[in-house]
């Protein structure tokens, strides 16, 4: 145990080696000094009390071997541990003879250095206190198992540490001869132990060696034995051995060595840089370095010395993770090579760090660094070209993406991120193949491969998965991006068609619904048509019944009416005796009422016929002039009675004109219009009938100087049963059917009828037109 800090002098011409050792040993609690050559070393030794010196054999100027005797002679209490690259047995043996306690090989394994230094200092302490009264205390307080033997190999003493090494008790050993420890060691190991013991008794130094030891519970341990002969007055009187359990260290060494060997054999034909480090991050193996650095130059140094400082943190973090999780990790670094070679500039490496594990711990790592400079530069070019279209891309409504061959993203525009619910920060962790929904993955991978070999793919239909798991249907194109002849990325432009597809689906469904609806409708129409057909049949039957009823009624009504009219006429003529005044008046009333009733029945019958579509024109050649003149005769008597003047102004073009028409119906129209004129014109008024030809029509008008028709009534008087209140000068009430019937008859001929009146007391004019169908022409054709 160190109560005071022990001072160690590191003698080595390479400053880096000194620094590495110094850092490690300082962290172990030692006080360290440095010397770059033999002279400096002697200087330091003179000025300080130095417990231990680590001495480099190969040094410019005075070499380690030359310096060694001087140290031994002048500073016998300083133990020397030798460090050398050349594992040259002769040199080692030569040094051992000169009293070097231990040697460590270069490239350095810092654990080995610590172990060796520990052992040497322990031995030094033991030597010093060999004769010391405090021997016991030191003996017990040692870190390692200590054994003292007499000349014959009998175990004299052993310390408490023995329990930690295999669970043995002092009693198991004290008093026994080392040759008899068959339970503790394999036979082979025992032979080695015995041989080395004899050598030492013969005065020969034996370097530390390893044996296999069996614990009490049967476990196998690797134990390092470092023993020195104990002399008294020049004579060897016994042996002092330090036993140390190096099983774990051994395993680590083995794993590292295996990795080293494995990588050495594998890395002959790889472009990657492969580094094997131990758990102090010291490079144990490297397959290549960037010139002028050589692999030999960096082996033994920590990786931090090889890699520029700005990357140390990234590396340290990654290594921390590897040691903690015992799982591979990776990181990307940029190495600024411009100091070494300005032409190289910055190199990019992606490094995968794989732990080397024993069953208990991580003992080192294998770092595989792939040069991704080409890729990085390509992406830089790509990014620059994208920069040029940046605003277009940024503002685009379409989703635009740039993806590396491994599916990771170089770029995605805001529309892309927004549609899928991601942010810019999510992008580095995303992979296109995870974005594509499983249902279209196989298809997309196929297309992706096509693009990667240089084909542009159009009309892609795919399903993406949004961050929240929603399905996004897209359509678009993908094109390869080249740097030189290589496709370095695929660029895709997509459009979210989820809504459109949904709408299409909806329309499809609606269409389907409409189709069934149409079919139903057709069914309904069929049903309705059937119903209507029935209804029409019913209506026809009803009409038939109506017509039959009407003709029946006319017969039934007209027969008694004829009797009423006939007999009341006979009574008026007083043929069968004179009537007194009252009787004559009543009979006259009966006659007039009878005649009114008859005309009403006739009109109703005519109208019913028209409405039932049964009225037909009975066509013949008609001379309009004659027809008009004869219709004036019909009201002559009435006109005379009321002192109305009648005038006819008939154009001579009508003189010989014969048209095809229904004479009886036209006469009825003229009779209706003229009797209305007479009826609604006060005494001494005038009625004028005019007729002439206008183009292919005959125009006839009947003008009176009567009461006129108010504007609001003009539109209604052609409706059935419409009568303007008041105005008729004689008592005979009208039927309200004359004008509608006339209208029907005129229209049956293809003509029109209308009224013109400037209002009350301003007289009326009824005008109708008839198309000319000339009888003579008809005959000719
Ligand atoms: P009626 O004459 O039998 O009442 P109409 O159909 O012939 O039935 O005539 C309908 C109505 O039109 C009449 O009641 C009358 O009010 C009005 N009217 C017809 N002709 C004339 C006319 N020349 N002058 C004023 N009013 C008329």
Overview features:
five-stranded parallel β-sheet, binds adenosine-5'-diphosphate, 24% strand, single chain, five-stranded antiparallel β-sheet, 25 helices, 781 residues
Structure, described:
- This protein has 781 residues and is of the alpha+beta class.
- Helices cover 44% and strands 24% of the residues.
- The protein has 25 helices and 27 strands.
- The longest helix is centred in the C-terminal third of the chain and has 75 residues.
- The chain is rod-shaped, with a radius of gyration of 67 Å.
- The chain starts with 6 loop residues before the first strand and ends with a helix.
- The structure holds adenosine-5'-diphosphate.
- The site of adenosine-5'-diphosphate (ADP) has 19 residues, from helix 22 and helix 24.
> Roughly how many Å is the radius of gyration?
67 Å
Low-confidence stretches: 777-781
Total number of beta strands: 27
Helical residues, percent:
40-55%
In DSSP terms (H or I, runs of 4 or more residues), the helix count works out at 25
> Could you say which overall geometry the principal axes of the C-alpha atoms support?
rod-shaped
Q: What spatial order of strands do you see in the largest sheet?
A: 2-1-3-4-5
Arithmetic mean pLDDT: 84
């Amino acid at each position: 145990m160190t109560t005071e800090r022990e001072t160690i002098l590191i003698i080595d011409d390479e400053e880096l080696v000194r620094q590495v050792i110094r850092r490690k040993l300082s962290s172990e609690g030692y006080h360290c000094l440095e010397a770059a050559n033999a002279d400096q070393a002697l200087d330091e030794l003179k000025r300080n009390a130095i417990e231990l010196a680590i001495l480099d054999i190969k040094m410019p100027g005075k070499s380690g071997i030359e310096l060694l005797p001087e140290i031994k002679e002048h500073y016998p209490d300083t133990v020397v541990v030798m460090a050398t690259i050349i594992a040259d047995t002769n040199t080692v043996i030569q040094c051992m003879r000169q009293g070097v306690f231990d040697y460590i090989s270069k490239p350095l394994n810092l654990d080995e250095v610590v172990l060796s230094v520990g052992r040497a200092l322990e031995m030094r302490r033991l030597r010093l206190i060999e004769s010391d009264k405090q021997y016991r205390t030191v003996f017990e307080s040692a870190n390692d198992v200590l054994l003292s033997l007499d000349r014959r190999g009998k175990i004299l003493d052993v310390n408490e540490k023995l329990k930690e090494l295999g669970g043995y008790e002092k009693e198991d050993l004290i008093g026994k001869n080392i040759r008899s420890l068959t339970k503790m060691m394999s036979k082979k190991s025992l032979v080695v132990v015995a041989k080395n013991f004899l050598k030492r008794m013969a005065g020969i130094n034996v370097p530390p060696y390893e044996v296999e030891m069996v614990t009490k519970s049967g476990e196998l341990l690797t134990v390092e034995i470092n023993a020195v002969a104990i002399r008294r007055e020049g004579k060897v009187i016994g042996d002092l051995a330090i036993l140390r359990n190096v099983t774990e260290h051994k395993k680590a060494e083995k794993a590292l060595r295996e990795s080293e060997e494995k990588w050495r054999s594998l890395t002959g034909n790889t472009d990657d840089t492969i580094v094997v480090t131990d758990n102090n991050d010291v490079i144990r193996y490297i397959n290549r370095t960037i010139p002028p650095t050589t692999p030999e130059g960096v082996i033994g140094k920590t990786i931090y010395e090889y890699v520029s400082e700005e990357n140390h943190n990234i590396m340290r973090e990654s290594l921390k993770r590897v040691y903690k999780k015992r799982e591979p990790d990776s990181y990307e670094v940029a190495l600024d090579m411009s100091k070494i070679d300005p032409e190289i500039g910055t190199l990019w490496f992606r490094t995968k760090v794989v732990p080397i594990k024993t069953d208990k711990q991580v003992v080192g790592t294998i770092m595989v660094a792939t040069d991704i400079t080409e890729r990085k530069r390509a992406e830089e070019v790509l990014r620059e070209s994208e920069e040029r279209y940046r605003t277009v891309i940024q503002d685009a409504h379409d989703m635009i993406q740039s993806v590396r061959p491994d599916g990771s993203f170089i770029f995605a525009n805001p529309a892309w991120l927004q549609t899928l619910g991601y942010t810019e920060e999510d992008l580095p962790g995303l992979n296109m193949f995870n974005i594509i929904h499983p249902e279209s993955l196989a298809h997309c991978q196929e297309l992706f491969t096509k693009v990667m070999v240089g084909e542009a793919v159009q009309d892609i239909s795919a399903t993406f998965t949004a961050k929240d798991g929603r399905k996004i249907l897209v359509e678009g194109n993908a094109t390869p991006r080249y740097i030189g002849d290589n496709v370095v990325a695929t660029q895709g432009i997509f459009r979210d068609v989820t809504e459109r597809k949904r709408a299409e689906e909806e329309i499809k469904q609606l269409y389907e619904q409409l189709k069934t609806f149409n079919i139903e409708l057709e069914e309904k129409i069929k049903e309705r048509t059937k119903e209507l057909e029935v209804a029409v049949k019913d209506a026809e039957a009803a009409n038939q019944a109506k017509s039959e009823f009407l003709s029946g009624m006319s017969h039934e009504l007209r027969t008694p009416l004829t009797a009423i009219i006939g007999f009341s006429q006979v009574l008026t003529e007083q043929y069968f005796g004179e009537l007194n005044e009252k009787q004559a008046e009543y009979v006259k009333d009966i006659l007039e009422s009878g005649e009114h009733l008859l005309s009403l029945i006739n009109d109703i019958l005519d109208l019913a016929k028209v409405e039932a579509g049964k009225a037909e024109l009975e066509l013949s050649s008609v001379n309009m002039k004659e027809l008009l003149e004869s219709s004036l005769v019909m009201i002559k008597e009435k006109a005379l009675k009321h002192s109305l003047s009648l005038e006819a102004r008939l154009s001579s073009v009508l003189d010989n004109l014969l048209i095809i028409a229904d004479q009886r119906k036209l006469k009825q129209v003229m009779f209706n219009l003229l009797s209305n004129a007479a009826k609604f014109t006060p005494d001494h008024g005038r009625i004028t009938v005019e007729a002439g030809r206008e183009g292919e029509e005959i125009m006839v008008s009947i003008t009176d100087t009567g009461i006129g028709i108010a504007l609001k009534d003009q539109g209604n008087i052609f409706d059935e049963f419409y009568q303007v209140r008041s105005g008729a000068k004689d008592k005979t009430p009208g039927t309200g059917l004359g004008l509608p019937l006339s209208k029907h008859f005129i229209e049956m001929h293809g003509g029109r009828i209308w009224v013109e009146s400037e209002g009350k007391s301003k007289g009326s004019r009824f005008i109708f037109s008839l198309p000319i169908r000339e009888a003579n022409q008809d005959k000719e054709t």
